[in-house]
Design goal:
Layout lengths: L5 H20 L4 H4 L3 E5 L11 E8 L17 E7 L4 E7 L10 H4 L1 H9 L3 E10 L9 E9 H4 L26 H14 L5 E8 L8 H10 L3 E3 L3 H9 L3 E11 L8 H7 L3 H4 L9 H24 L6
Parallel strand pairs: 1-4, 1-5, 5-9, 6-7, 7-8
Antiparallel strand pairs: 2-3, 3-4, 5-8, 6-9
Helix pairs in contact: 1-4, 6-11
Enzyme class: transferase
GO cellular component, one term: cytoplasm
Keywords: Glycosyltransferase, Transferase
């Protein structure tokens, strides 16, 4: 018997069976019953689902045993099955992800990853909206993730904490190769072939739990650690996907530049006899969720074109 909780493991099988039954009840083709790729559509990037063609089947999270419901604006909360590209690559999209900050624990937030692993998915594409910590990054830029910093994990808040599911992966999975090099190369080759002019970087994504955006001091700390971007998702999903032996690719859309300069000193202002009006508006430049969604919409066309070309190259031998 596994050292993991067999009852909990059975939850993944129950959910996977419910999904399969729903697909069959809607006369889905054989390829949709065996999707090759899971695509997680991040904030403002739900439009990726629009590149699916032909037959599609939508299953709301509420209809899947064990799935929690997405509560964030811009996250529909469903699995969408379909095909992408001339090669008809079968995929399943998470149109809206689940977050720790919504009040779900990591097991709930990453539950869909384990369920699609039971369905046979072996490749994860995770997208997100993020803040640009690297001072050369601008809003609207994209960043291919080649590594991450898991700040909650360093403090012991880790999605693999607890009994291990030996049926799915090892107790101590390596993460030095979490972001697959061959997939990153295929992505950049697709971009080059398409002639996309949008700036696309490659760098390190830093995970913070949220839901508050980072303070100025926290942004300086992240920059000193080597983080290029910061966000509130993706890393828990990558950790669980790698535990399930999935190959992983991550793409971040920079929606804003973080504020990292120290705030003005009230002590100095008092000594100089300055008023708050003379010091200036301290709310200027701060981040909002509306800004995140706006940048996502502006970048969606390029992202969709690139993703279609990239995913079309993911053959059975990939």
């Amino acid at each position: 018997m596994s050292s993991g909780d067999i009852t909990s493991y059975g939850r993944f099988e129950i959910a996977a069976r419910a999904i399969t039954d729903t697909l069959r009840s809607q006369n889905a083709s054989k390829s949709l019953l065996s999707p090759k790729v899971l695509i997680i559509c991040g904030s403002g990037l739900g439009g990726i689902a629009k590149i699916l063609h032909g037959e599609t089947v939508k299953i709301p999270y509420a209809n899947i045993p064990g799935f929690k419901e997405s509560t964030v604006s811009g996250h529909e909360g469903c699995l969408l099955f379909g095909k992408i590209g001339a090669n008809d690559v079968p995929v399943v999209c998470m149109v809206g992800r689940l977050h720790y900050y919504e009040g779900y624990d990591f097991a709930d937030a990453t539950f869909p990853i384990r369920v699609v692993a039971v369905l046979g998915v072996r490749l994860l594409i995770a997208t997100n909206a993020c803040g640009g910590v690297n001072e050369t990054y601008k809003p609207g830029d994209l960043m291919v993730i080649n590594d991450h910093i898991n700040l909650p994990g360093l403090a012991g808040n880790h999605p693999l904490r607890g009994p291990n599911f030996d049926e799915m992966g090892p107790r101590f999975p390596a993460m030095s190769d979490a972001y697959d090099f061959d997939l990153r190369l295929k992505f950049f080759n697709a971009v080059k072939k398409l002639g996309i002019e949008r700036s696309i970087h490659e760098g390190i994504y830093t995970y913070c739990c949220g839901p508050s955006f980072e303070t100025r001091a926290e942004c300086r700390l992240i920059r000193s650690f080597g983080g290029d971007t910061v966000g509130m998702s993706t890393v828990p999903e990558i950790l669980v996907a790698r535990h399930c032996s999935m190959r992983c690719f991550g793409l971040s859309l920079v929606t804003n530049n973080v504020l990292s300069d120290p705030p003005p000193s009230a002590r100095e202002a008092s000594a100089r006899g300055w008023t708050a009006e003379q010091v200036g508006n301290q709310s200027a430049g701060r981040t909002s969720h509306a800004e995140v969604l706006k940048e996502g919409q502006a970048a969606s066309e390029d992202v969709n074109v690139i993703m279609k070309a990239f995913i079309n190259e993911l053959t059975d031998n990939t």
